Amino acid sequence: MSTVLLSRSEVKSLMTMKEVVEIAEKTFKGFGEGTTINPTKVGLDLGETAEYPPYEGFMNAMPAYVGWLDTAGIKWAGGFLGERKKLGLPYITSLILLIDPRVGNFKAVMDGEWITSMRTGAQTAVSLKYLHKGPSIRLGLYGAGGQGHTQTEAVAAVFDIEEVRVFDINRESALKYAEDMKDIVKGKVTVVDDPRDAAWGDAIVCVTQSKEKFLKNEWIARRTNVFPMGSYQEVDDDFILSADRVIVDHVGQCLHRGALKGLVEAGKFQESDIDATIGEVVAGKKPGRLSEDDRVLCIPIGTGAMDIAVATVILERAREKGLGGHFDFV
């Protein structure tokens, strides 16, 4: 049986952000209902934090089974600075492999960088659909790079964005973001020079590579949804420990990477402090908010299930359109 091979350009041509959001929502529901199976990712530190080897990067192996599509696969993906950044390549590098879960044949191999970026934005958008009421939203954004773009595109697929206030340590990046998003954001995009000024709105999204806890508890107002999406802890300890609700996409992963890792290792945060998973909220098994005044910490750190679900629908469309190469590995 031939394996379909799909390039990044072919992958991008087959799906819109709105469709990615819809797929992410169905997959989150599967998490809540127990039909999405997603082991904790396995990480390989290639110098992201380790002293050796010194390549300023990491890779994750992310397998999953998605019941509503009866599909399985694995994403092998990571992020690199260092030599990759000098070459002008995207931070994320990724391939997705799909199998037929009944017999184990490899159905497809495709680029995963675009899917990773799109589904990461979609995870935030789906979460906000269940945490924020109303058709419009105000957004504070830290990080104006590729993820800042896709986060905004995804939120705009669900809400009318009244305003985005964006901060980036590179002002030129923020200005480019403002220009790029002028047709995506129905309201206005405001570039701010003081990081405190981006801690504003109905939702604050952090998509940075910062190792600083730059988002301060005292900046965050009542009723705000906070999404620290970076690999490190972008919000300070006080906010995490005082948030009214803590909601995550995957308990095992969120306890050992990203915003919660440091507090877990210090013994100040544990699994029982998590109020719900996004899947439980989407499936109607647990509430997102208990009160409109709640400050909610939501951490969709990213799961292979989202990638496998999006990739499977892309494969179906590629077959319909006759796109992609083929290779007989066996």
List the helices and strands and how they pair.
Blueprint: E1 3-6, H1 8-12, H2 17-33, E2 36-37, E3 42-45, E4 57-66, E5 71-80, H3 82-86, E6 92-99, E7 106-111, H4 113-131, E8 136-142, H5 146-158, E9 160-167, H6 171-180, E10 188-191, E11 203-206, E12 225-228, H7 237-242, E13 245-248, H8 251-254, H9 261-265, E14 276-277, H10 278-282, E15 296-299, H11 304-321, E16 325-327
Parallel strand pairs: 1-7, 8-9, 8-11, 9-10, 11-12, 12-15, 13-14, 13-15
Antiparallel strand pairs: 1-16, 2-4, 3-4, 4-5, 5-6, 6-7
Can you describe this structure in just a few lines?
The protein is α/β, with parallel strands linked by helices. The protein has helices spanning 8-12, 17-33, 82-86, 113-131, 146-158, 171-180, 237-242, 251-254, 261-265, 278-282, 304-321, and strands spanning 3-6, 36-37, 42-45, 57-66, 71-80, 92-99, 106-111, 136-142, 160-167, 188-191, 203-206, 225-228, 245-248, 276-277, 296-299, 325-327. It folds into 2 domains: 3-115 and 304-327, 2-Layer Sandwich (ornithine cyclodeaminase, domain 1); 117-299, 3-Layer(aba) Sandwich (Rossmann fold).
Q: At the fourth CATH level, what is the homologous superfamily of the largest domain?
A: NAD(P)-binding Rossmann-like Domain
CATH class label of the largest domain: Alpha Beta
Q: Note the overall shape.
A: globular
Structural class: alpha/beta
- The Cα radius of gyration reads 19 Å
Mean pLDDT: 97
How many helix segments?
Answer: 11
- Write down how many β-strands occur, each being a DSSP E stretch of 2 or more residues: 16
Low-confidence stretches: none
